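SAMPLE LOG
Freezer: B-3
Tube label: C17
Construct: single chain, 288 aa
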Amino acid sequence: MNILITGILLSGTYALVALGLTLQYGVARIMNLGNGETLVAACFVAFWLYAAYAINPLLGLLLIAPAAFLINWAIYALALAPLVKRAKNRGQLEADSILATFGLLFLLQGLMILGFGGEYRSYTFLAERFDLFGNSYGLNRVVAFAAAVVICSALWFFLYRTRQGTAMRAVAVDPNSANLVAIDVPRTAAIAFALGGALTACGGALISTFYTFNASMGVIFTMKALIIVIMGGVGDLRGAVLAALILGVSETLVASLIDPGLTLAATYALFILVLLFRPQGIFGRAPS
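STRUCTURE (predicted):
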């Protein structure tokens, strides 16, 4: 039970990061390899706000999320929209976006090393004991999970109960058909990319409350988010949440029962199994 709950608590922030990449890839058709750098940047900003101004990281989300939205909108408009316009098909866009965001990864990483250095950082926030079902957990992890659930619920409401959210889902299914029913596809894709960046930043700010981080670890979270997205089925929010839960519990199980150093290996083993036996993802449909 202890391992299961610990894994579930971890999966909440994983789900946020994966949902960010799901929106960027599923709607905007951009495979953003700089996604993890957005997460790490949010970690540093949350750390800076808390250390310099004593701003609660949860309140800091009110600053971090809008800033990440605007920055990711600018990145899309300046660096990625030209790739979208010139791409003749989805395959070319995916290849071009991978190359472009691969360069963005190193740019953002270099800026963070320049600004914050390469050492590991952490801060003490709600580092108290929280008893649940007879076991003790860090209160910061519980609060981070609860915040992630609230944000994911707000995303679900936006996507399934608002006009703009419906437009995003339509673009994710078929951009050409969406264009025929008066949906502004380029604008919707830009909003999806920016919103994905904001979700990832929220995940980073929450992770920073209980995780030690440095400027070079973004690629690890990018790969985890990518694994979750593919496991769940590209563009499928239900699949991303379930895959995040599976990944969080699997990592906790391996770390607790075998060796913490093997968690990443277990993650990739799980990924390979999915590619071998369920390449379309948990909720995806096999091509006919």
